[in-house]
Amino acid sequence: MTHRYKIIGMTCDSCQTKVQDLLSKAVGVRNVNANWHTGEAEFVMKKHIDTSVLQNALRGTRYKITEKQENIPHIMEEVTKSRLQTYKPVLLLFAYITAASFLVQLKSDTFSWMMWMRHFMAGFFLSFSFFKLINLSGFADSYSTYDVVAKKWRGYGFLYPFIELGLGFAFLSGIFSLVINTITLVVMSVSLIGVLQSVLNKRKIRCACLGDVFNLPMSTITIIEDALMIAMSLFMIVFLKA
Prior knowledge:
Blueprint: E1 2-8, H1 13-24, E2 29-35, E3 40-45, H2 51-57, E4 64-66, H3 83-86, H4 88-103, H5 113-134, H6 136-143, H7 148-152, H8 155-173, H9 177-200, E5 206-207, E6 216-217, H10 220-241
């Protein structure tokens, strides 16, 4: 017999694989196919299995399983939204950081683009690392589905938010500018490789740029984010060496 259940908490391909592996080990389950896009799992069972037994197979994880269809969050609700609505969180964040970076120089006699970029990059890394650190494990799961380094070493997904946090504080303080911009150039270039591969291959996966807080799909917006940081760091390196 076949049964369909709702799975709450799946946000990426890694989550889907993990849920399938755990649930397939439950007694009585012949086969299970999970889909993180729909937030559902279809079971082939020898006989009906109580939901509590299936939930027990997911113990120690954030995933919840239920047969009820009401009051279940839509994991990929953004599919029905306009692009503006979908990316509203990240666009608002960019607007806040941009405005704050300009306001910092209000008391200065002259406007400095170098100073603006330094403050913008500080705001970018501090803000984005904050959202990633809210659910570090969730971010690491999502990041390992597309980042070229995190795919090979999942620990990089746990380390990455702290790299961003360190870069944010470094840009804010203005210390070791050449070294910090060089590190930024390398880190963001590596990050961009995985993003480009996912977008060009049209993989429908979740972007981990704002951690596990917002359910944003991978798109050209993510490419622009990384490319902007690369361009700014490269400009500052050239300026500092001049």
